[in-house]
Amino acid sequence: xxxxxxxxxxxxxxxxxxxxxxxxxxxxxxxxxxxxxxxxxxxxxxxxxxxxxx
Length: 54
What we know:
Elements lengths: L18 E2 L2 E2 L6 E3 L12 E3 L6
């Protein structure tokens, strides 16, 4: 079984509870397409669903 990737994730949403000095410290990160589709054609159509307000 492969390990999950580990990387630094920048975050500039300063009212997210996982943002610490512009880095995401969430235990996991989930990004989904907006709407009812499972595809995005641009970053404007993608949504970080890990976000939680402070």
